[in-house]
């Protein structure tokens, strides 16, 4: 079975002119996209880790001293627009530029955005210009790199879900490193240093992608080539589904309805999940015990050391495997990626040494956000193998499981918040509740997000795949808008009903959506017409 799947994949790569070098059983080109996306996510999540905390920090600490409500509303608008602009970026790539040029344009614009934000100390205007550039650049970048991942595999390949999960590990490797280093440097050294660092690695991502473009064959070169690839995909779909014609209007309609339902389900998920950079950051900053002394402080320093070294070591090993396959043919890609990793190792070791020289351990408020990405990095491969070899339920069941797990994570926050008095502005709740929440949120994310991306790719008509990915991210935009507005109510709700009530609300809503998915599972599977 595995040999057959490999033969199908190799045949597909040959048709599209993609380099057939393999890494961990997947195309080497997947890992070029892996590192490109990793550095883009470094920049975005490094920025996200700092945004709310920077806005609410006191003027004497270099922040802007905004209210929680105002900061979370801006957070919601920023993250919402970041996920809304991919709709336009997908259309532009489909009709005008092709995927590759869109990715390069987006990466360059985001690099300029970080440079502007780093100059916020000179003028507030630079900060807002930087946010705008980040939003526009992400719109060109985000949907099109996801589209390219989907086109590396035929729809009949059982490895496609696993490929998206590996790609998702790259997303979270970048997110982890960005939140860890930008968050730490921003809070402990200076906000503008944290904002600027994010842009440096966005630039490295641009360079390593630029010098490896030929590895992708004809994928993403121009709109005309996109249509050529689409024709190949349609042919493969018809060959693998002999009992029906995948281009029949009724089949397309049913599959698009399922895609739409999955998008709505993702809104319920990310509405809760995106509290991480909003209300959960406020909870970490003002309501969590973050100063540790004695043995507790020493234990944390060693845990933080492992959390710093282990993920960097994993992605360095992935780079080593990739370099063995493509270094001779694409040397500059490996050179620039290798240089970026040397800098990452240097910053990681500097951070560890600096913390061990401190008498007590003060956990940065942004530190908790790295837990999501750490859990992704350590669990993504296991989830991928689990779906591939142990239990591979339908798409609706996987998404429902993700919704249930993210809801369950808020139960821990609600329980930990029960001791906080009504209207309290500060508290010292144990950090274990945030850690448990992030663990279950991560498990839920692995059930929903990479699987959702894979099903968008498999169920969508290939000619419009960039547009459909744009719509997928539009659903995330809606979720972020809602997350920001509801998260901004943290003070009002906690003053009247308590912090526990605030968090239990975010737990109940996604569970309700999960129940609906499970109830309609059979109908949805039927409407997918053979896509699994």
What does this 3D model show about the protein?
- This protein is mostly helical.
- It contains 20 helices and 4 strands.
- The strands form 2 sheets. Strands 1-2 form a two-stranded antiparallel ribbon. Strands 3-4 form a two-stranded antiparallel ribbon.
- A hairpin with a 2-residue loop joins strand 1 and strand 2 (26-27).
- Residues 229-243 have low confidence and may be disordered.
- It comes from Kaistella carnis.
- It is found in: Cell membrane; Membrane.
- InterPro entries: Dipep/tripep_permease, MFS_dom, MFS_trans_sf, MFS_Transporters, POT_fam, PTR2_symporter_CS.
- This is MFS transporter.
Key phrases:
single chain; 532 residues; mainly alpha; Growth Hormone, Chain: A; 2 domains; two-stranded antiparallel sheet; two-stranded antiparallel ribbon; 20 helices; 4 strands; 77% helix; 2% strand; MFS_Transporters
Please specify the SSE layout and strand pairing:
Elements (H helix, E strand, L loop, with lengths): L1 H14 L6 E2 L2 E2 H29 L11 H17 L1 H12 L1 H19 L6 H28 L8 H29 L2 H20 L12 H18 L8 H25 L5 H8 L4 E2 L1 H33 L4 H26 L4 E2 L7 H21 L4 H22 L15 H28 L5 H23 L2 H7 L2 H21 L1 H7 L5
Antiparallel strand pairs: 1-2, 3-4
Helix pairs in contact: 2-3, 2-6, 2-7, 2-8, 2-12, 3-6, 3-17, 4-5, 4-6, 4-17, 5-6, 5-8, 6-16, 6-17, 7-8, 7-12, 7-14, 7-16, 8-13, 10-15, 10-16, 10-17, 10-19, 12-13, 14-16, 15-16, 15-19, 18-19
């Amino acid at each position: 079975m595995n040999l057959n799947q490999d033969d199908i994949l190799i045949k597909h790569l040959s048709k599209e002119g993609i380099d057939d070098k393999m890494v961990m059983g997947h195309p080497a080109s997947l890992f070029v996209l892996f590192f490109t996306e990793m550095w883009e996510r470094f920049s975005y999540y490094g920025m996200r880790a700092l945004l709310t905390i920077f806005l609410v920090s006191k003027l004497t600490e270099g922040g802007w001293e905004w209210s929680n409500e105002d900061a979370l509303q801006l957070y919601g608008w920023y993250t919402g627009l970041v996920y809304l602009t991919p709709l336009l970026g997908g259309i532009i790539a489909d009709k005008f530029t092709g995927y590759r040029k869109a990715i390069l344009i987006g990466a360059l614009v985001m690099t300029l955005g970080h440079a502007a934000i780093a100059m916020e100390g000179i003028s507030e205007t630079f900060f807002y210009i930087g946010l705008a550039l980040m939003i526009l650049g992400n719109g060109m970048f985000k949907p099109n790199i996801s589209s390219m991942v989907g086109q590396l595999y035929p729809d009949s390949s059982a490895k496609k879900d696993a490929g998206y999960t590996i790609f998702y590990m790259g997303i979270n490797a970048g997110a982890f490193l960005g939140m860890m280093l930008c968050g730490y440097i921003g809070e402990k050294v200076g906000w503008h240093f944290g904002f600027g660092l994010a842009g440096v690695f966005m630039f490295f991502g641009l360079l390593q992608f630029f010098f490896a473009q030929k590895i992708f064959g004809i994928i993403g070169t121009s709109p005309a080539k996109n249509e050529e690839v689409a024709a190949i995909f349609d042919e493969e779909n018809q060959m693998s589904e002999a009992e029906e014609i995948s281009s029949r209007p009724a089949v397309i309609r049913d599959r698009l309805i399922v895609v739409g339902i999955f998008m709505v389900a993702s809104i319920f998920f990310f509405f809760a999940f995106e509290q991480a950079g909003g209300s959960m950051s406020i909870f970490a900053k003002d309501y969590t015990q973050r100063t540790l002394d004695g043995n507790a402080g020493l234990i944390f320093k060693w845990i933080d050391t492992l959390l710093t070294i282990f993920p960097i070591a994993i992605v360095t090993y992935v780079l080593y495997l990739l370099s063995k396959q493509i270094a001779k043919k694409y040397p500059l890609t490996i050179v620039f990626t290798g240089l970026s990793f040397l800098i990452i190792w240097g910053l990681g070791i500097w951070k560890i040494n600096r913390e061990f020289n401190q008498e007590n351990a003060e956990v940065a408020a942004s530190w908790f956000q790295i837990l999501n990405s750490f859990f992704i990095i350590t669990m993504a491969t296991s989830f991928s193998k689990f779906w591939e070899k142990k239990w591979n339920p339908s798409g609706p069941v996987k998404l429902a499981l993700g919704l249930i797990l993210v809801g369950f994570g808020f139960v821990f926050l609600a329980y930990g918040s029960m001791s906080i008095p009504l209207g309290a502005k500060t508290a010292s709740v144990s950090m274990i509740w945030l850690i448990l929440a992030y663990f279950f949120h991560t498990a839920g994310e692995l059930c929903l997000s990479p699987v959702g991306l894979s099903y968008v790719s498999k169920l969508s008509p290939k000619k419009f795949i960039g547009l459909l990915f744009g719509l997928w991210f539009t659903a995330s935009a809606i979720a972020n808008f809602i997350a920001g507005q509801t998260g901004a109510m943290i003070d009002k709700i906690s003053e009247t009903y308590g912090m526990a009530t605030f968090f239990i609300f975010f737990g109940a809503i996604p569970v309700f959506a999960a129940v609906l998915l499970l109830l309609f599972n059979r109908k949805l599977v039927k409407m997918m017409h053979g896509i699994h």
